[in-house]
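Good morning C.,

I know you're traveling, so I'll keep this short. The sequence:
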Amino acid sequence: MSMAAPDPKANMGQPVPRYDAVAKVTGRAQYAADVPLANPAYAYLVTSSIAKGRIDSFDLGEARQVNGVIDIVTHENAEKLKDPKLFSNGGYAATTIQPLR
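The tokens, ready to paste straight into the viewer:
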């Protein structure tokens, strides 16, 4: 059996060597999720149980005092998340989908 890549077809690019292929298929490769973090932050999405309700106001005082809470994002302050800068450009966002829009 040949270890060479097949000749590319008209709709394919040139073959690229995958130096990590053996490690991936044998389970030896380490992925980002395999690296332990010392102090990770978690996000939780809380949705309304009312399908067609209207928000008049929030009382977030007690929620903000919970130990470990970094921030609470609502429709009132989500504007600061407008036009997120992606990870690939040194930013904080993994997607261009804008929450609460």
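Safe travels,
E.
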